[in-house]
């Protein structure tokens, strides 16, 4: 679904950013243009991003443990 109507940014694009290693919402904004116009999407976009980072980080734990 479109999260940012101004710049046609989808929830999928935000999740893909998190999965590719982006760890700040400012970087999501820079890469996608999300929330850089009216800002109405920022709360939802930020929530989607932080949820995706938390899920991605959880998925990384076994890899970190295996490397230790
Ligand atoms: S809806 Fe995202 S900046 Fe306007």
Automatic annotation (TrEMBL):
Presence of the UniProt keyword Iron in the record: yes
Keyword annotations of the record: 2Fe-2S, Electron transport, Iron, Iron-sulfur, Metal-binding, Transport
Keyword Hydrolase: no
Cross-referenced Gene3D superfamilies: BFD-like [2Fe-2S]-binding domain
BFD-like [2Fe-2S]-binding domain span: 2-49
Family annotation (Pfam families): Fer2_BFD
Cofactor(s), names only, from the UniProt record: [2Fe-2S] cluster
Protein name: Bacterioferritin-associated ferredoxin
Naturally occurring in which organism (per UniProt): Dokdonella fugitiva
């Amino acid at each position: 679904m479109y999260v940012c109507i101004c710049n046609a940014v989808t929830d999928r694009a935000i999740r893909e950013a998190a999965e590719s290693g982006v760890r700040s919402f400012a970087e999501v904004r820079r890469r996608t243009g999300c929330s850089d116009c009216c800002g109405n999407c920022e709360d939802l976009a930020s929530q989607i991003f932080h949820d995706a980072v938390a899920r991605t980080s959880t998925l990384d734990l076994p890899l970190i443990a295996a490397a230790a």
